């Protein structure tokens, strides 16, 4: 069976080596390069920066070849390949991590009661990693554990610690190699209740939102480029709560999936808030 496939595609994330320094904003590990059908890079500057609201750099293969005066071939004919089976993390691995010693949980106790925090840990199965890091377990609607995002927070400010060794990692990297990862919405395992769904970008926002506005079931895409994950809740009562500066982009996906979208942050934001790109958790905690 023949399938039409794009000849040049953005390289999928399989680890730190697949993300590079953006040639425009110069942020490290944020730039995805285009590759050809053999996995070769086209050029160091051909790709897309994931900081779309702050940088927006995106040089496509067609633009690059046009500038070089080279004919561009956008598609190839390729044999359709079956998708590899998704790998899952054993449940006992997650269970061993369910403690309350990470810095993110310590930060939450400054704003919410211990009973609310304990209930949220149980609901979202928030885990602990070494050195005070939190594990956001990605659990699908069949209660299968896809992966865990490991992140480090400042226990005083609640802000992410970035750019230091161990500040970001994936749990599946420590389970099996190679591991066939297929991500899902954070909080997808809660889909079986009858509440309307709220979707935000970060796991932190989903956690804070769940405690402050419990009329929704809160989920998170876990990244700016993970809109495809929302396909699994299409047809449900869903409202999107984008970060400041991301409303227009999220509106496109709201229309695509038939979701509602909130302008609440855009309506109350100051110019300083817009510059910082605050999210709904920032406003709740203020």
- Number of beta-strand segments: 14
The rough form would be described as: globular
Number of helices: 9
Low-confidence stretches: none
Largest sheet, spatial ordering of strands: 2-3-4-5
Beta-strand residue percentage: 15-25%
Mean pLDDT across the residues is 91
Following the backbone from N to C, one meets helices and strands in this order, namely EEEEEHEHHHEEEEEHEEHEHHH
Q: Helix content range of the residues, please?
A: 10-25%
Radius of gyration: 20 Å
Structural class by SSE content: alpha+beta
Report, as a whole number of angstroms, the end-to-end distance. 56 Å
Largest sheet: 4 strands, antiparallel
Number of domains: 3
Characterization of the model:
The termini are far apart. The strands form four sheets. Strands 2-3-4-5 form a four-stranded antiparallel sheet. The chain has three domains: 78 residues, no CATH class; 102 residues, no CATH class; 100 residues, Dna Topoisomerase Vi A Subunit, Chain: A, domain 2, CATH 3.40.1360. Helix content is 24%, strand content 19%. β13, α6 and β14 form a beta-alpha-beta unit. With 286 residues, it is α+β, with helices and mostly antiparallel strands. The mean pLDDT is 91.
């Amino acid at each position: 069976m023949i399938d039409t496939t794009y000849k040049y595609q953005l390289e999928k994330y399989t680890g730190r080596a697949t993300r590079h320094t953006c040639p425009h904003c110069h942020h490290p590990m944020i730039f995805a390069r285009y590759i050809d059908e053999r996995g070769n890079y086209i050029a160091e500057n051909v790709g897309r920066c994931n900081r779309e609201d702050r940088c927006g750099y995106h040089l496509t293969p067609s633009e690059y070849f046009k500038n070089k005066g080279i004919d561009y071939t956008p598609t190839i004919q390729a044999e359709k390949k079956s998708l590899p089976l998704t790998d899952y993390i054993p449940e006992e691995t997650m269970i061993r991590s369910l403690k309350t010693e990470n810095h993110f949980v310590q930060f939450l106790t400054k704003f919410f009661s211990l009973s609310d925090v304990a209930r949220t840990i149980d609901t979202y199965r928030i885990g602990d990693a070494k050195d005070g890091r939190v594990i956001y377990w990605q659990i699908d609607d069949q209660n299968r554990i896809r992966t865990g995002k490991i992140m480090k927070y400042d226990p005083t400010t609640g802000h992410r610690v970035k750019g230091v060794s161990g500040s970001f990692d994936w749990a599946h990297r420590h389970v099996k190699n190679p591991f066939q990862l297929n991500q899902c919405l954070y909080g997808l395992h809660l889909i079986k209740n009858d509440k309307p769904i709220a979707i935000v970008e970060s796991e932190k926002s989903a956690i804070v939102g769940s405690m402050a506005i419990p009329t929704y079931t809160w989920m998170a895409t876990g990244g700016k480029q993970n809109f495809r994950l929302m396909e699994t809740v299409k047809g449900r009562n869903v409202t999107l709560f984008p970060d400041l500066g991301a409303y227009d982009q999220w509106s496109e996906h709201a229309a695509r999936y038939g979701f509602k979208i909130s302008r609440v942050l855009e309506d109350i934001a100051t110019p300083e808030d817009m510059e910082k790109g605050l999210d709904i958790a920032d406003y709740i905690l203020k």
